[in-house]
Amino acid sequence: MPDTVTKTATHFSPGGRCLPCLCAPLARCRRLYAWLLLVLATPCLAVGGIHVKANTGFTGVRIEAASWVAADTATLWETLTDYDRLASFVPDLRASRLVSAPGQPKLVEQRADAGLFAFVMPDHVVLAMEERPRGSIRFHAVAGNVAAMRGEWVIGDDGERVKLTYRAHVVPLLPPPPLLSDNLVEAEIRQRLGAVVREAERRMQMRTAAGKS
């Protein structure tokens, strides 16, 4: 195992870590605030066929999202489990890597520029993955800057279309702030789920083109 993972819900750096929103540069906080005002003024819509429902409260954030995907189950599964490359196409994800030894239960460490959205995607988390090939991936946090996080990715195939569903329950170290509205969370999840869908469709198009050549 490349790194030793300590099961804790507090600090990971030698000097400790503070709340990401409080230690962000002033300019970045201003941009986040401007986007917050924009999202709060925008009604929750299903954009591009992506449906998202979030429920934010004192017990954390509950999320359910789904989208049709123009890719087969094999390509979508390949995209979801490409843990070492997730940061190349998922917005705000700085790093993602498989840290478990070969043959051991999979552990994936992720670091993100979460800012205010640490209540949706912690700035540091280690997830234990339970895979059912081409069917589902269940995950739960075993370490990181989060009190608890668990959820699942589910691939559905009715023979004609492929559907990707994401469910999660995130319990932050502190209660979500009042400004963190359901609309804001839904917009953030829609952006990230959309990135996964687009990457799977891109890979599918490349695979189809290669098959025709």
Hey, roughly how much beta strand do the residues contain? 25-35%
Query: How many β strands by DSSP?
Result: 8
Major sheet attributes: 8 strands, antiparallel
Whole-angstrom Rg? 18 Å
Secondary-structure element pattern, one letter each: HEEHEEEEEEH
Q: Which stretches are poorly predicted, pLDDT < 50 over at least 5 residues?
A: 1-47
Q: Give the overall form.
A: globular
Number of helices: 3
Helix content: 25-40%
The computed structural class is alpha+beta
Mean pLDDT: 81
Measured distance between first and last alpha carbons: 41 Å
The largest beta-sheet arranges its strands as: 1-2-8-7-6-5-4-3
Keywords:
single chain; 213 residues; alpha+beta; eight-stranded antiparallel beta sheet; 3 helices
What do you see in this structure?
With 213 residues, this protein is α+β, with helices and mostly antiparallel strands. Helix content is 25%, strand content 32%. It has an eight-stranded antiparallel β-sheet with strand order 1-2-8-7-6-5-4-3, with helices on one face. Strand 5 (124-132) and strand 6 form a beta hairpin. The longest helix is centred in the C-terminal third of the chain and has 31 residues, at 182-212. It starts with 25 loop residues before the first helix and ends with a helix. Residues 1-47 have low confidence and may be disordered.
